[in-house]
Automatic annotation (TrEMBL):
The protein's name in its UniProt record: DUF2071 domain-containing protein
InterPro entries associated with the record: ADC_dom_sf, DUF2071
Organism: Knoellia aerolata DSM 18566
Residues annotated as transmembrane: none
Length: 230
């Protein structure tokens, strides 16, 4: 599957590995840099998702998404991402991804607005009663040279997910993220609290970046306990 991720903002909070180790699939542990791992809140636009290398699927292949993620490494040394939630405004995408791969997609009402270099991302989950909400407002700046932390967080070539009774690694190929400086103008988030991380949004993020985007291609999932052949 090919996808284009555009107008993406990286927001990350440093946490102790032990605080999130229990959220990892079997055979996977938190990946660390400098003794800490990170929780990410990542809003963006999905554009032109398509099957294999074919063209994007009209309407269905373009939608808004915000995910809450952790950073993982398996026993073979492959680094990846573990999603705690993926909120999207296409109900069909939510149902399909949950059924096919067991990914924690949730249906939400979402919007993305741009005014000059300011990006505003709004999310409200479709739930009975009071629904968790999120609003992120950032000002994108100029292109920057990637730091060690930038590379640790963005140079991820797959995801780990527990599905069909085992832990899978799903490879993902893309060019290096073109990263820009970014300033958080406003942040109100309840999505991290909705997946059991209630205290993070009360403090400023430890890492912020913006990217105009990359084109990606997912490969076939494989058993995370087996090294891939090159």
């Amino acid at each position: 599957m090919t996808q284009s991720w555009q107008d993406l903002t990286f927001l990350h909070w440093a946490v102790e590995p032990g605080a999130v180790a229990h959220r990892m699939p079997p055979g996977v542990r938190p990946d660390t840099l400098g003794g800490v791992t990170y929780v990410g809140l990542i809003p963006f636009r999905m554009v032109g998702a398509g099957i294999a290398r074919g063209p994007g699927v009209p309407w269905l292949g373009s939608f808004l998404e915000t995910n809450v993620r952790l950073y993982s490494v398996d026993d073979t040394g492959r680094r990846g991402i573990v999603f705690l939630s993926l909120d999207a405004d296409r109900a069909a995408v939510v149902v399909g991804a949950r059924a096919a791969f067991g990914l924690p997609y949730r249906w939400a009402r979402m919007s993305h607005g741009v005014s000059g270099d300011v990006h505003t991302y709004d999310v409200r989950l479709h739930r009975r009663g009071r629904s968790p909400e999120s609003q992120v407002v950032v000002r994108a700046g100029g292109r920057r040279e990637s730091t060690e932390l930038d590379d640790f967080l963005s140079a991820r070539w797959g995801l780990h997910v527990h599905a069909w009774g085992r832990t899978l690694y799903v490879p993902n190929r893309h060019q290096a993220w073109p990263l820009h400086d970014a300033e958080v103008l406003s942040l109100h988030d309840e999505l991290m609290a909705s997946v059991g991380l209630p205290d993070l949004a009360a403090r400023p993020p430890d890492h912020v970046a913006f990217s105009p985007g990359v084109r990606t291609q997912f490969g076939f999932p494989g058993d995370a306990s087996r090294p891939r052949r090159h």
